């Protein structure tokens, strides 16, 4: 299925799928990616989109799940200081293709992170979608990393100068709305 500006891509061997921007490059072509992740990068902006399957956090209430996972991502990224969460919003299930989720949430946060263990840090807005699937003991996370400023000492500095056709929040929203489970066997 093709849509304006992008097309449906298989995820996790076709067990899931979603509509991505047409210029999303599969990072697994260049480096190893954990089996529970699908990672895509923009060739010119240092933006990335990550689909990740993580353990369902039964002790975290649905309205708190996005904040919980966003703060966990900040810790994994080695974000300097506290990650600032600037908003959490419930996604209307009627607008989602992932009908198996019990609820879905979107959060936005700000982080200062380094790439590849560099010393310089970039300011990144992180948009996170969380789909709760307790019946599969899984939370599906979809992360849109959107750099706001790239440090001149970062390996990404050269890319930042060629800021062409960046992904938008509409691209991220379309991804959230179109993620689909094609094979529940993915969860064991």
TrEMBL record:
Family from the record: Belongs to the MOG1 family.
Keyword entries, A-Z: Protein transport, Transport
Pfam family, one: Mog1
Record carries keyword Methyltransferase: no
Top-level taxon: Eukaryota
Gene Ontology cellular-component annotations: nucleus
Name assigned to this protein: RAN guanine nucleotide release factor
GO molecular function: guanyl-nucleotide exchange factor activity; small GTPase binding; sodium channel regulator activity; transmembrane transporter binding
GO biological process terms on file: atrioventricular canal morphogenesis; heart contraction; heart looping; protein transport; regulation of heart looping; regulation of heart morphogenesis; regulation of membrane depolarization during cardiac muscle cell action potential
């Amino acid at each position: 299925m093709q849509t304006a500006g992008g097309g449906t891509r298989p995820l996790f061997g076709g067990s899931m799928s979603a509509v991505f921007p047409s210029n999303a490059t599969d990072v697994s072509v260049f480096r190893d990616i954990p089996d529970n992740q699908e990672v895509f990068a923009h060739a010119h902006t240092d933006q990335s989109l990550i689909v990740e399957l993580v353990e369902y956090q039964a002790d975290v209430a649905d309205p708190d799940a996005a904040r919980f996972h966003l703060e966990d991502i900040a810790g994994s990224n080695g974000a300097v200081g506290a990650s600032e969460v600037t908003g959490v919003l419930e996604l209307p299930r009627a607008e989602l293709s992932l009908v198996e989720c019990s609820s879905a949430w979107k959060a936005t946060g700000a982080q200062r992170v380094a790439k590849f263990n560099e010393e310089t840090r970039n300011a990144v807005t992180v948009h996170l979608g969380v789909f709760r699937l307790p019946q599969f003991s899984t939370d599906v996370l979809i992360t849109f990393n959107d750099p706001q400023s790239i440090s001149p000492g970062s390996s990404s500095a050269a890319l930042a100068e060629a800021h062409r056709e960046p992904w938008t929040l509409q691209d991220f929203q379309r991804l959230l709305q179109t993620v689909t489970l094609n094979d529940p066997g993915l969860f064991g």
